[in-house]
Design brief:
Layout: E1 2-7, E2 10-12, E3 18-26, E4 31-38, E5 47-52, E6 57-59, E7 67-72, E8 77-82, E9 91-99, E10 103-106, E11 110-114
Parallel strand pairs: 2-11
Antiparallel strand pairs: 1-3, 3-8, 4-5, 4-9, 5-6, 7-8, 9-10, 9-11
Length: about 120
């Protein structure tokens, strides 16, 4: 069992910045991948960015060059630095962790609103 606790969401103006954090705790040996997803149409949760335990990253095209994902393995925490935010980035952002190669866990979600 793994708990993911997210923080850092909020209201920000266009071109502003936010930093999301997601801290994992519980019973696990390894966290292989940690990533961020956001709601699209309906209940879709496409990938925003993820990062492996060795630092390999992937980004959605829409956020490439603006968002940066990072990870502190000692703290079992993943971060998403979001710069140059656009109204289109408004969403609920969810953290996900792949644990012990086979198990996925989700955070509770944190609201990001980009508006003037």
């Amino acid at each position: 069992q793994v708990q993911l606790v997210e923080s850092g969401g909020g209201l920000v103006q266009p071109v502003g910045s936010l930093r999301l954090s997601c801290a994992a705790s519980g019973n696990f040996v390894t966290i292989n991948v940690m990533g961020w997803y956001r709601q699209a149409s309906g209940k879709e949760l496409p990938l925003v960015a993820d990062i492996t335990s060795v630092g390999t990253t992937n980004y959605a095209s829409a956020v490439k060059g603006r968002f940066t994902i990072s990870r502190d393995n000692a703290k079992n925490t993943v971060y998403l630095q979001m710069n140059s935010l656009k109204p289109e980035d408004t969403s609920v952002y969810y953290c996900k962790a792949r644990v012990n190669f086979v198990n996925d866990y989700w955070g509770q979600g944190t609201q990001v609103t980009v508006s003037s």
